[in-house]
Amino acid sequence: xxxxxxxxxxxxxxxxxxxxxxxxxxxxxxxxxxxxxxxxxxxxxxxxxxxxxxxxxxxxxxxxxxxxxxxxxxxxxxxxxxxxxxxxxxxxxxxxxxxxxxxxxxxxxxxxxxxxxxxxxxxxxxxxxxxxxxxxxxxxxxxxxxxxxxxxxxxxxxxxxxxxxxxxxxxxxxxxxxxxxxxxxxxxxxxxxxxxxxxxxxxxxxxxxxxxxxxxxxxxxxxxxxxxxxxxxxxxxxxxxxxxxxxxxxxxxxxxxxxxxxxxxxxxxxxxxxxxxxxxxxxxxxxxxxxxxxxxxxxxxxxxxxxxxxxxxxxxxxxxxxxxxxxxxxxxxxxx
Length: 336
Description:
This protein has helices at residues 3-17, 36-48, 70-78, 94-101, 114-122, 126-141, 233-244, 270-273, 327-335; strands at 25-31, 52-58, 81-84, 105-108, 145-149, 155-159, 165-168, 178-180, 184-187, 195-200, 204-205, 217-222, 225-231, 253-259, 280-285, 301-306, 310-313, 316-320, 323-324. It is α+β, with helices and mostly antiparallel strands. The protein has two domains: 3-122, CATH 3.40.1830.10; 126-335, no CATH class. Strands 13-12-10-6-5-17-18-19 form an eight-stranded antiparallel beta sheet. Strands 7-9-14-15-16-11 form a six-stranded antiparallel beta sheet, covered by helices on one side. Strands 2-1-3-4-8 form a five-stranded parallel beta sheet, with helices on both faces. The two termini are 26 Å apart.
């Protein structure tokens, strides 16, 4: 199933996203939850393109952001191109950052499935999606104050404060460069300015027991920190999981992201969910250094989805209940 379409998508990953050159060392790593079909398709595409391909499998870790086995950590630093397929992603680990510092360029496709790869890479107008992401990133860089509302009850205010804004286009071409599945723009607001109510009504992962939500999880936010969590059984489970680490940073907002991939659906797989077109994704816990924030490393990380948001930048509405209303965004959205 999807064999032809998957080969096309894999070729896009290797040629357009990774910009692989003949003779470069390619490392594809996967935990035992990953799709063997996706691993094989990417390895084949990289080999056809002239890459020197290595594939490394390892046992799935209990939590995200746990350090990998030592042989994998060493291999990551030695590769020119690293493609992550592990479900329990490593992007918050020392090994991951050491590989970037050593010059590896890294593409995170954590938890990628054949169907997701076909829908979110193979069947979309990738160039147009990149253009839309560039525009969103530019709007955010030129703004300071942000307000997010949603039908589920989100009413969250923050300031961007000149912090870096990253368009995760999925394209990596320079040593030490990192990216993710395309269709996402990410930033970390000034933590002390994040206040209000935040409601996850799409999905949350981890913990493993969550995914697609049956009932919203409502959180009171003060100065970028979750002060109270309300809701049903899923909210209680989420709070217990955050509290289980004994780490106050697990309750801090690490970043926000815009979802922009027209092929993405709400599936319970966070890599895809946080790219659902028009959604806002919020990360809690460990914060990568590139965001220039104050949260830093935490014992784990989790992401939740706000559906149908209304977004205002410096008082100007750019999105209303999940649909863009800013003129340039409307034009590019229709073309996608």
